[in-house]
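Narrative of accomplishments. A recurring question from our advisory board has been how the design workflow behaves on a single, concrete structure rather than in aggregate. To address it, we present the structure tokens for one chain from the evaluation set, followed by the sequence designed for it. No filtering or post-editing was applied between the two.
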């Protein structure tokens, strides 16, 4: 695996979930795999879970880790090609990425959506520029449109809690917020759940429909209570509008998941990726409910990161081995 940016980078997503669960049982089984390898973590936005879980995962695989808050600590980066850099930017991504690729064997990057330029966000301009110029494997730590490490952790959590032999009904339900948030977690959760063959329903107010590239195959509704009926898993998340991009159309009813609405479900497991604004997005009682999985999701971020890094390290090793083999053949 050279890139982990979307479920489409994975040939066997169910197999990856199983491999993560095996790692969870025996987390130090590969503690030498990353010896003499360096993971570089680049953040353009804040993080708690992604930053710490990925760092810990790398260390548990024996890797060294370097971290940079590129928005604050680096030179101001120019991301556009073919520009005269006579403004505020100091270093082009072409040069910065090439240097990062020399220092690091794998690079992770967090680069949120601007929510102002949909074309740029949905073409994943920043992520693609890094991938184009760094020459090493890249892990998305949440990009403009997707958050695959979170979705893999969510898939691991659902696999641990679903009833055997039953295709679970998974409901992604929009939640209120005070400011516009990217669509990345929702897009990503939807594409992973659809790939893993769950019964997916997405409920949101009118004006908040997600980009259909990520939701094709899901049941879409603007009726939250109807969606919650018989749900096995309820995933709560806010996102801003896709059209008009980044807007927050007015919502006249309260979409916060409450205990009363929760009772419509089949005693569903409650999920949220965190951070969560208590009693705005989701009632405090439900976050702390016995059926809440929010802490399990956060814990599984570690095994999601581990299985991705392990797979990449094994790929790097194979490449190294094959290079040696080629050299040996040439010498003969
Ligand atoms: N869920 C998640 O990605 O958390 P952080 O933003 O804290 O990394």
């Amino acid at each position: 695996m050279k890139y982990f940016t979307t479920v489409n980078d994975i040939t066997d997503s169910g197999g990856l979930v199983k491999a993560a669960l095996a790692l969870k049982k025996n987390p130090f089984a590969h503690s030498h795999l990353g010896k003499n390898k360096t993971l570089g973590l680049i953040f353009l936005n804040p993080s708690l879970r992604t930053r710490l879980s990925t760092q810990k995962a790398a260390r548990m695989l024996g890797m060294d880790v370097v971290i940079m808050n590129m928005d604050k600590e680096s030179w101001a980066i120019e991301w556009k090609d073919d520009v005269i850099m006579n403004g505020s930017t100091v270093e082009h991504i072409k040069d910065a990425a090439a240097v990062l690729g020399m220092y690091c064997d794998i690079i992770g990057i967090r680069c949120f959506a601007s929510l102002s330029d949909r074309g740029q966000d949905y073409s994943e301009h920043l992520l693609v520029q890094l991938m184009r110029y760094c020459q090493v494997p890249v892990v998305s730590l949440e990009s403009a449109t997707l958050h695959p490490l979170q979705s893999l952790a969510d898939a691991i959590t659902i696999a641990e809690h679903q009833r055997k032999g039953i295709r679970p009904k998974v409901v992604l339900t929009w939640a209120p917020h005070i400011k516009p948030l990217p669509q990345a977690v929702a897009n990503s959760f939807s594409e992973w759940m659809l790939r893993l063959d769950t019964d997916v329903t997405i409920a949101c107010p009118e004006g908040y429909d997600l980009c259909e590239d990520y939701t094709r195959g899901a049941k879409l509704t603007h009726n939250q209570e109807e969606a919650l009926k018989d749900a096995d898993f309820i995933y709560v998340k806010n996102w801003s509008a896709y059209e008009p991009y980044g807007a927050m159309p007015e919502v006249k009813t309260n979409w916060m998941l409450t205990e009363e609405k929760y009772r419509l479900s089949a005693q569903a497991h409650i999920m949220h990726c965190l951070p969560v604004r208590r009693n705005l997005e989701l009632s405090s009682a439900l976050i702390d409910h016995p059926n809440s999985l929010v802490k399990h999701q956060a814990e599984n971020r570690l095994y999601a990161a581990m299985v991705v890094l392990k797979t990449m390290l094994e790929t790097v090793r194979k490449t190294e081995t094959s290079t040696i083999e080629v050299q040996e053949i040439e010498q003969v």
